[in-house]
Write a structure and sequence with these properties.
alpha/beta; eight-stranded mixed β-sheet; 3 domains; Rossmann fold
Length: 464
Amino acid sequence: MLVSPAAEEMRQWSHEQALAERFALAVTQLNRLKGVLIRIKGRVTLGGTANDMIIAHRAADLDLQQTVPVLEGLLTQAIKPCRLDVGRILSENINLDGEIDAANAQNLPNEAQDVVLYGFGRIGRLMARNYIERSGPAALLNLRAVVCRPSKDPKADLRKRASLLRTDSIHGAFNATIEVDEDSLCLIANGNRIQFIYAPHPAGIDYGAFGIKNAILIDNTGVWSDEAGLGQHLSAKGVEKVLLTAPAKGDVPNIVFGVNDEAIADQKIISAASCTTNASTPVLKVLDEAFGIVQGHIETVHSFTNDQNLIDNFHKADRRGRSAALNMVITSTGAAKAVAKAYPPLAGKLTGNAIRVPTPNVSLAILNLTLSRQTTVDAVNDLLEQASISAIYQKQIGFRWSTELVSSDLVGSRHAGVIDGAATIVEGQRAVVYVWYDNEFGYAQQVFRVAQAMAGIRLATLPA
């Protein structure tokens, strides 16, 4: 009996879909049970649907019939938390046993590190999603508490914050079970009890009363940006270190993970710099090391933020008082100077400016550079594409080549920045590179990586 082409195509699709569902389930189980994060040639798989898995495999020219047995085999083996690129392992014919040995040779903490979120706005809630998503027996960081401003009705406030965590106008519904314990002022998210503390000031909080000890506190408020202000958190019982999710002033180190994270060491107070600095610096470092950057300009086309007005009103900053939803607004940015702090070889070589535009998320850094030698579009793109799958930069640099790519396609990107390969311009020694970045979620991933390093957690990225 002859089978029609349409029926055969449907049969093949159903088989591929079934394999993709197994792959996606294995990805989730490896993360929850063993702390293993699976990538496909640099592409993140955690949280993806079965169709996302099919698309990733096709983009990497991989077959699910090859990858599914590898992941399901890992579930039966003893392996420490790590990042494992199954795409590279198979395409480069790398011995998986050696990679498992490398993962198990890591020196990781014996118990999970307590984490406190101070502030529960855009970044605070995305950070909470990160910790809840990665919770489970193998979790090395546990979100224990969230601090909010005092409320006349804390129970009503908690219900509202639970709703904001469950749903998001930009990032969509959060795939987690979230219950509200009003009497204890707690959220129970995927089985994790998260205490909500309502306090007007950091210094007087006793985190120890909630069983929290030696915590890393992540300050998402931006109220304080220097050592004196942020140091107030250290006087609270139960806090050991402080991480700021904004550029810092004074002697507080500004860290771009993947570039200068070795400076974290045993520092008590550090900053994760800005979203723009995190998107730009890894790309600039790769280009400078390969071609040399003589000088350049960073123009940031940035989505509007909460500090702007929805309609025209007074604002202490020039131009930002005008409606964010109706205007492109030129404003200053410290990104160029911040890049040089994280990567000193570019000190004095860069200028920067920003344009706020009427989109709610995903921004674009335009790197207009003069290189020390002539090159080509292909050479620049090849370099950045290879960096995007390397063990060193695959967490920071993504690479896409599509003439149809637009900003909303990058919502939810876990990379610090994503190269738009189709837009790259090179003429002799002049190069223009376009770097998209989810200035909320992508930045939150970088903050998460800095927090891991502060806790002494440096997961191996395999193959190295």
